[in-house]
Amino acid sequence: MIEEKVKIPQATSKRLPLYYRFLQNLTNAGKKRVSSSELSELMKIDAATIRRDFSHFGALGRKGYGYDVQYLVNFFRQTLDQDEVTDVALVGVGSLGNAFLKYNFHKNHNTRIVLAFDPKAPVEGHIISGIPVFPPSMLKEKMLEFNIELVLLTVPAQVAQEVTDKVVKTGIKGILNFTPVRLAAPENVRVHTIDLSVELQTLIYFIKNDVKDSHM
């Protein structure tokens, strides 16, 4: 986990998992050292931005040498708590929720779905893709039993806030929201929203404007 005393910008924090992933790929390829310009070319992030991001953590590299790849991998693994797996609950087993259950994250990340909830599940629960699924009536009991602090929310938009109100009462710390609703939650619960329709519309906008710019 990133310590609170390390004051780094939110934009930098969001890039840290990307750095870790690309550095792991370099390690697997046998790369021993890398420059910010090489990372820039690989990641399509400005080299100055990379150097600025890394500078928040002190001297990670040496002038004229670049960065030691294995050192950076170890550093970001510790910074991101990659060796500690976080258990996650999924609320809403529709098409997207089912896809998450089949994929599960622990294969490639330090998170794993261990519990899910869906109105169609029986009271005694059933298993989907190896994950126990229970009805919403069992939410509080099971969330506390599994000691869940992070939730993936993939419910219909019309019930998103209602479900959020219920899950925050279990003492969770974060919600990754895949609904288009802007959720209201207590200050001690961090909510990150991924609105797929907005992301798609944004991509279409940029593509169309790229075409316009190419004809100017």
UniProtKB/TrEMBL annotation:
Transcription recorded as keyword: yes
Subcellular location: Cytoplasm
Domain CoA-binding: 81-182
InterPro entries: CoA-bd, NAD(P)-bd_dom_sf, Rex_bacilli-type, Rex_DNA-bd_C_dom, Tscrpt_rep_Rex, WH-like_DNA-bd_sf, WH_DNA-bd_sf
Annotated binding of NAD(+), by residue: G92, V93, G94, S95, L96, G97
SUPFAM superfamilies: NAD(P)-binding Rossmann-fold domains, Winged helix' DNA-binding domain
Cross-referenced SMART domains: CoA_binding
Highest taxon of the lineage: Bacteria
Role according to the record: Modulates transcription in response to changes in cellular NADH/NAD(+) redox state.
Subunit structure: Homodimer.
UniProt record similarity statement: Belongs to the transcriptional regulatory Rex family.
Name recorded for this polypeptide: Redox-sensing transcriptional repressor Rex
